Amino acid sequence: MSAGERFLPYGRQSIEADDIARVAEVLQADYLTTGPLIARFEEAFAEAVGARHAVVSNSGTAALHLATHAAGLGPGDVAIVPSVTFLATANAVRYVGAEVVFADVDPENGLLTAETAEAALARAGAMGRPRAILPVHLNGHSVDMVAIRALAERQGLAVIEDACHAIGGSHPAGNGAMAAVGACAASDFACFSLHPVKTITMGEGGVTTTSDSAAFQRMSRFRSHGMVREAAQFEQRALAFAPDGEVNPWYYEMPEPGFNYRATDFACALGLSQLGKLARFAARRREMRARYDRLLKPLAPIVRPVRPTSGDAVLHLYAVLIEFDMLGLDRAAAMRRLKDEGIGTMVHYLPVHMQPYYRHRYGTSVLEGAEAYYRRVLSIPFHPGMSDADIDRVVAALERLARRAHAA
């Protein structure tokens, strides 16, 4: 890395002075948690993605768990999960006692397809009753939700979108229409992460959207220990009400146990501020993607972007496929060379079916598409704080790597 050049991480939050001011304001207010900003953020988020309901929680993992719980998954049930995803997608199925069947993916973009999902369903019968499918919009590229929904309807499956990478994007919804990711046009639930490296952030945070009002109420309870405070829902009326008929002010009930997945008001203040910048951040990410796409073309077939889908993606990660055999350099060595030039990279992800817990539970399996994608994928720097010159610098470093193949 030359003197004066900054290190470029693969992802980074974009926090501005007004974000800091919004958080500082809440830190000096009456409520730090369970206050008025929770509902305000949920309403604003639902409006931003075109959803009927949104439930905020303290992580994308919690958002997924809320959805698997509200979908009624449990012991004896099976859910289809693509193997190329973060651990949380599969783990949210296990949290409710259901079993995971890992599906293969398209090796050119890491995405679940209707065909790979159907192949996984064919393997699911011995493990339990198939009840759900969790398509993952990897890197921000959308799964073909029209095809997934058609499969789900034929098989009687709930559809839970893992949209943790995909806020701000849209996908085809059938009959030539487009739907925002999160509107649940072809799903029962959509789950988002607002971790610092995502397009917008709450620090840590998650959101689950749905069109189902009963599921919305259940998730709202479940994220706060399963408690209810509404008089109409109380079962133990002798305990709940005073002799004058008024509700005892301290009283609450727990019809089913939940978790403490509450988000803080100051996290929601940051989320609201960032949500107001979503269009600007998305526009910059589209510009950056277009520049990378154009500059990387001469490096094919050694280095090339993952194959895009038909949706209008707002990328969370910019992933390239590198033919390391042609490069004459293994991936770890290539990452070290790039790091020496101030270029941060990461691999998203080791296929989850290869993780020790899942291998011990389900045995060793081979998913050729997932493993082919994993062998070649690398995430390169991609966040709105980068300039065009930063992008040019990343591409130049990749070009120097690619020259090794031509020189060999």
Structural descriptors:
single chain, 408 residues, alpha/beta, Aspartate Aminotransferase, domain 1, 2 domains, three-stranded antiparallel beta sheet, 15 helices, globular
Task: Explain this structure.
The chain is of the alpha/beta class and 408 residues long. The chain contains 15 helices and twelve strands. The protein folds into two domains: 259 residues, Aspartate Aminotransferase, domain 2, CATH 3.40.640; 130 residues, Aspartate Aminotransferase, domain 1 (Alpha-Beta Complex). The longest helix has 20 residues. The protein is globular, with a radius of gyration of 23 Å.
Write the layout of secondary structure elements.
Layout: H1 17-27, H2 36-49, E1 53-57, H3 60-70, E2 77-82, H4 87-95, E3 99-103, H5 114-124, E4 129-133, H6 145-155, E5 158-162, E6 170-174, E7 177-180, E8 189-193, E9 206-210, H7 213-222, H8 237-240, H9 265-275, H10 278-296, E10 303-305, E11 318-322, H11 324-327, H12 331-340, H13 356-362, H14 368-376, E12 377-380, H15 388-407
Parallel strand pairs: 2-3, 2-4, 4-5, 5-8
Antiparallel strand pairs: 1-9, 6-7, 8-9, 10-11, 11-12
Helix pairs in contact: 1-9, 2-9, 3-4, 3-7, 10-15
Which series of helices and strands comes N to C? HHEHEHEHEHEEEEEHHHHEEHHHHEH
- The CATH architecture of the largest domain can be named as 3-Layer(aba) Sandwich
Query: Which outline best applies?
Result: globular
Computed over alpha carbons, the radius of gyration is 23 Å
Give the helix/strand class: alpha/beta
**Could you describe the largest sheet, including whether it forms a barrel?**
7 strands, mixed
Lateral arrangement of strands in the main beta sheet: 1-9-8-5-4-2-3
- Report the CATH C-level class of the largest domain: Alpha Beta
Q: Uncertain segments of ≥5 residues (pLDDT<50)? A: none
What is the number of domains? 2
Helix content: 25-40%
* Spatial separation of the terminal alpha carbons: 25 Å
Question: What is the strand content?
Answer: 5-15%
CATH H-tier superfamily of the largest domain = Type I PLP-dependent aspartate aminotransferase-like (Major domain)
Helix count equals 15
Number of strands: 12
Mean pLDDT: 96
CATH fold-type name of the largest domain: Aspartate Aminotransferase, domain 2
